[in-house]
């Protein structure tokens, strides 16, 4: 059975290659370490990205705190910029820093579309190019 986000991950990997970044999907199981890994790892020799991918047809997503902790730990060890890549229906990819997320009472994270549009970055910004589109 294919995970719901697999297609989104493949699409984002393809987009990163088009931006001259080597990119790959990380193993879902965390590989030999059994630690949470980001969904995508990418780099171009100057900029390194670790991306947790989320897709939704709604206007809000929730993210398990363990995923964010794993993203931050991996990013620090690897020397990558950690991002949450979010694809809301009918919108381009939006990238946020873990610091842009809001903690819920259950100590997980929540991201609403309006916050994503306000704080998010586009693909051009995270790949070191000028911003070419406005998110709103």
UniProtKB/TrEMBL annotation:
The reaction(s) annotated as catalysed by this protein in its Swiss-Prot or TrEMBL entry are: Endonucleolytic cleavage at a junction such as a reciprocal single-stranded crossover between two homologous DNA duplexes (Holliday junction)
Please share the entry's free-text remark on the cofactor: Binds 1 Mg(2+) ion per subunit.
Q: Which cofactor does it need?
A: Mg(2+)
Active site located where? 29
Query: Transmembrane stretches, by residue range?
Result: none
GO MF entries: crossover junction DNA endonuclease activity; DNA binding; magnesium ion binding
- Residues reported to bind Mg(2+): 9, 39, 52
> What keywords are assigned to this protein?
DNA damage, DNA recombination, DNA repair, DNA-binding, Endonuclease, Hydrolase, Magnesium, Metal-binding, Nuclease
The site feature described as Transition state stabilizer is recorded at 54
Q: What does this protein do?
A: A structure-specific endonuclease that resolves Holliday junction (HJ) intermediates during genetic recombination. Cleaves 4-way DNA junctions introducing paired nicks in opposing strands, leaving a 5'-terminal phosphate and a 3'-terminal hydroxyl group that are subsequently ligated to produce recombinant products.
| Homology family | Belongs to the Holliday junction resolvase Hjc family.
State the protein's name: Crossover junction endodeoxyribonuclease Hjc
Q: What species is this protein from?
A: Methanothermobacter marburgensis (strain ATCC BAA-927 / DSM 2133 / JCM 14651 / NBRC 100331 / OCM 82 / Marburg) (Methanobacterium thermoautotrophicum)
